[in-house]
């Protein structure tokens, strides 16, 4: 159990500590990233102005005062450019926004090195200022923990030796040196911890949103699948009556706009009951499926083939004319008549199955209802049945 817990927390720490911002994550939070840059640049600029007007007046020499003022103004210039960049042009720098953010923080911190050199009597003040800048950037800026840790490590390698060197020049006091190192370490550790926690919250929110997005996508696909299944007959994979009725109204509207004729055909399998009685319902189902495949093979992708009853099927075809409808129905009848359907429990034997067909053409301006046409074609279908089955009866439109 302890081993599992250790692995789990190790995995979480790696995910949070070493995880880079995903491009989609950056894109979704681009406005907040830009806002953080603006806030950070304004706060840094205000701090630089206050330091320039009040604190830097304590600089002892004119040369040092000149260079300190120069670097403060440079800091202000960087803050001003960053503010304008974040306000106007963030979108075009989206791919490099984290690199730009890191560069801004490094540039502002680096300016403190020459300040320590030119005004070494007050080097501890610049040490504190630069460490506060890193801690503030860790909290305000959108940077991964690994970037902050690397920057803090490099900062320690550069600034602590400088501080040690100038402390020796000014008269080394071990107590004050270690006190300064402790304060700086605390500020850096505070910034890293705050950055770690803030990024945990950012990633957690993003992760929840991603899970929600994935779940919603799955639900939409499931709903679409359910919707598709509700329109398809499960045995034959043809459309069902519901879909046929919906498409009938759409076809009429399209035909009215484009001015073509629509054909409606009803097909009824002959003597399916005798197959069920003799071979069982499983064989009857196989016969229905064989007919469904034949029907699909003879229709175009613009036509609607549907099963509307146990052994009754319907075709909605458009655009088509009288000759086309006759050829289509005859090809279905001939194909079905010649089809050999294997008997499921005796593959060496086969049976044949015929179909009776009734159909008609109608013009969209007639605006008939489906039930009216169905009743009309039903009489044609029974004519085919009464004349000996395996017949086609097409009514005049």
> Biggest sheet: strands side by side, in what order?
2-3-1-6-7
Largest sheet geometry: 5 strands, mixed
**Number of contiguous helices:** 14
Average pLDDT, all residues: 86
Helical residues, percent:
55-70%
Using DSSP, what is the number of strands? 7
What does this entry look like structurally?
By secondary structure, the protein is an alpha+beta fold. The chain has two domains: 2-216, no CATH class; 241-395, Alpha-Beta Plaits (2-Layer Sandwich), CATH 3.30.70.270. Helices cover 69% and strands 10% of the residues. A five-stranded mixed beta sheet has the order 2-3-1-6-7, sandwiched between helices. A hairpin with a 4-residue loop joins strand 2 and strand 3 (312-317). The protein starts with a helix and ends with a strand.
Topology, pairings included?
Layout: H1 2-17, H2 23-28, H3 30-53, H4 62-88, H5 97-110, H6 112-118, H7 123-140, H8 145-171, H9 174-229, H10 241-258, E1 262-269, H11 272-279, H12 281-297, E2 304-307, E3 312-317, H13 322-338, E4 341-343, E5 346-351, E6 355-362, H14 370-386, E7 392-395
Parallel strand pairs: 6-7
Antiparallel strand pairs: 1-3, 1-6, 2-3, 4-5
Helix pairs in contact: 3-4, 3-7, 4-6, 5-7, 6-7, 7-8, 7-9, 8-9, 11-12
């Amino acid at each position: 159990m302890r081993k599992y817990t250790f692995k789990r927390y190790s995995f979480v720490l790696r995910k949070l500590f070493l995880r880079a911002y995903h491009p989609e994550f950056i894109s979704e939070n681009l406005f907040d990233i830009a806002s953080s840059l603006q806030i950070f640049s304004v706060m840094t600029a205000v701090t630089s102005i206050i330091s320039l007007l009040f604190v830097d007046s304590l600089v002892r020499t004119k040369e040092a005062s000149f260079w300190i003022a120069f670097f403060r103004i440079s800091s202000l210039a960087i803050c001003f450019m960053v503010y304008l960049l974040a306000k106007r042009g963030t979108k075009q720098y989206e791919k490099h926004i984290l690199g730009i953010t890191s560069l801004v923080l490094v540039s502002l911190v680096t300016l403190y090195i020459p300040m320590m050199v030119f005004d070494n009597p007050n080097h501890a003040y610049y040490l504190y200022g630069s460490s506060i800048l890193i801690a503030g950037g860790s909290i305000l800026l959108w940077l991964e923990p690994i970037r902050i840790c690397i920057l803090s490590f490099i900062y320690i390698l550069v600034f602590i030796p400088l501080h040690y060197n100038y402390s020796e020049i000014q008269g080394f006091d071990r107590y004050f040196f270690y006190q300064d190192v402790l304060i700086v370490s605390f500020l850096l550790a505070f910034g890293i911890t705050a950055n770690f926690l803030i990024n945990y919250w950012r990633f957690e929110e993003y992760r929840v949103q991603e899970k929600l997005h994935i779940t919603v996508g799955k639900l939409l696909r499931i709903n679409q699948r359910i919707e598709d299944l509700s329109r398809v007959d499960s045995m034959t994979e043809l459309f069902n009556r519901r879909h046929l009725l919906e498409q009938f109204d759409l076809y009429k509207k399209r035909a009215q706009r484009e001015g073509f004729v629509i054909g409606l055909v009803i097909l009824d399998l002959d003597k399916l009951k005798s197959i069920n009685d003799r071979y069982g319902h499983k064989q009857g189902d196989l016969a229905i499926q064989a007919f469904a495949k034949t029907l699909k093979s003879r229709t175009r992708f613009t036509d609607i083939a549907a099963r509307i009853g146990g052994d009754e099927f319907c075709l909605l075809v458009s655009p088509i004319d009288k000759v086309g409808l006759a050829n289509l129905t005859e090809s279905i009848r001939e194909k079905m008549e010649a089809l050999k359907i294997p008997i499921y429990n005796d593959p060496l034997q086969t049976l044949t199955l015929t179909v009776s067909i009734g159909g008609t053409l109608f013009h969209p301006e007639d605006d008939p209802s489906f039930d009216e046409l169905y009743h009309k074609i039903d009489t044609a279908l029974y004519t085919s049945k009464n004349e000996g089955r395996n017949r086609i009866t097409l009514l005049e439109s």
